[in-house]
Amino acid sequence: MRRDRGKVYLIGAGPGDTGLLSVRGAELLGQAEVLLYDRLINPMLLLEVPETCEKILVGKREGAHQCIQEKINSLLRKKSLEGKRVVRLKGGDPFVFGRGGEEILALEKEGIPYEVVPGITSSIAVPALAGIPVTHRKVARSFHVITGHTAEQGITEQLEQYASLDGTLVFLMGVGNLQEIVRQLLEHGKPADTPVSIVERGSTIYQRRIDGTLDTILELSRLEAVRPPAVFVVGKVSAYHMQSERLPLAGCRIGVTGTSHIVKKLERALKELGANVFVAPHLKIVPTDTLKNRWRKENLMWRTVHWLVFTSANGVQQFFKQIRELGMDRRMLGHLKYAVIGEGTKKALWEYGIRADYIPKDYTVKELAVGLMKELKAGEHICVLRAKNGSKELEKVWDKAGIPYEDLSIYQAKVEENIVELLWESVSVLDYLVFASAFGVQGFLEKKEFLYKRKLWEEFQGTMVSIGDQTKKVLREMLPKTKKKIVVADCHTVEGIVQKILACEKEDFDEKQT
Ligand code: SAH
């Protein structure tokens, strides 16, 4: 049976930060059936495709041989002929030294339908993120994007014509040939005192900017051991630093871990204050079959329950998603009362139009267990809907008091190993590492021999921030001899974490002043 050809989407992913993918690109990524991506793509973007999507790394490096390009073209063709929606994701913009054009021509030859979604190119965005405007009134009236590396000759042929231009020169793929580029520009008359900058790994937690002049930059780049990917900016605009230093967390590098829900909230709040955030959603929420099995057996179970208890926003979301999938009408829950821990959980419940009846003052499981007992009328039954391996405090309190309750594990958190690895790789540059749950700590430190073996942990000079005492306790247990600083948020919320980091920064600042 012949299937229709699937459409191919050639999408620019931007320079690295997931927030710099276009809205259209993100939408299409969420519908991909096959994803072909390059080495430079931020791995976090791979989380945006559906679970069932086939992900293929087409390891193309700078100056890759033609045969690799041919392989990519034939893979695109093959997947399209299978009738799949294929996303070809490329760093920056697909047509800026991305060989996107070659892929399009190959698709056209085969009569395969396609769409191009432009991306934010590193040639403009990376300087901008480092505070360099590629044009500036009266300073640079043009900018020129030049490859610092061609497959045929290594170095671009004619730097002579560029040397005479007044506009900004932006070299991509130029690290390997920096010496030759600088030599030719000087030889052809660019003044030796022309300001230049190298921006390495722009828009990521590793971003570095190295400033100099045509005369000094080679030595500086050697000293700083510059590595690709980096852009090399030549021109007066390199003397500018258009980056606000006035934000309280400017220059602060913070790794945030946990489920994507909490990590995104933290990212938003911390970026607002100027922080450079490494987003590591290393926990994934996976539903269990508990409700399904239960529903099959006795679908009127809700009639015998009076209180539903949620200990997390994830629990709330999972519950409503699951009962909907089971075909249950929400009116069956009309008679119930609801108890929750924390503002986030309360808000999540309100998203479903339900106001919590009870919320303890202190956001701990124990406080909820004790407090809810006082609210309970004689004969009322409680049903707790939460994660597998939740805190044992509820049982302790209610068993002792003889309270009737049911504890249903409706979801569990799973550790995303590849994200944990990426996080490990980043720890040496982090000023703070945030943990929002005890399980999150376990997920990160489970294989800590790896960290130790590679000496990654020794390089971590930052502070660990935990959302609450339980999370801190697990950190202490898993890192018994650590001298590294661990702080706890005063209020067990995202806002509490942010406030704690601000307080630590202030303390640090005050210390430096005295
Ligand atoms: N199509 C891409 C460029 C591909 S060529 C775009 O539009 O951005 C690859 C080169 O892009 C790298 O060698 C480097 O010079 C530059 N580059 C890509 N991402 C970068 C980043 N995050 N930081 C610095 N340079 C980057």
How would you portray this structure in words?
- By secondary structure, this protein is of the alpha/beta class.
- The chain is 36% helix and 20% strand.
- The protein has 19 helices and 19 strands.
- It has helices at residues 23-29, 66-81, 100-110, 122-129, 160-163, 178-187, 217-223, 260-272, 290-297, 313-325, 343-350, 365-375, 393-401, 417-426, 438-445, 448-453, 456-459, 469-478, 494-513, and strands at residues 8-12, 34-37, 54-57, 86-90, 114-117, 143-147, 168-172, 195-200, 208-213, 230-234, 253-259, 276-287, 307-310, 337-340, 382-387, 405-415, 432-435, 463-466, 485-488.
- The strands form three sheets. Strands 14-13-15-16-12-11-17-18-19 form a nine-stranded mixed beta sheet, sandwiched between helices.
- Helix 10 (313-325) runs parallel beside helix 11 (343-350).
- The chain is globular and about 90 Å long.
- The mean pLDDT is 90.
- S-adenosyl-L-homocysteine binds at residues 15-16, 40, 62, 90-93, 96-98, 121-123, 126, 172-173, 199, 201-203, 228-231.
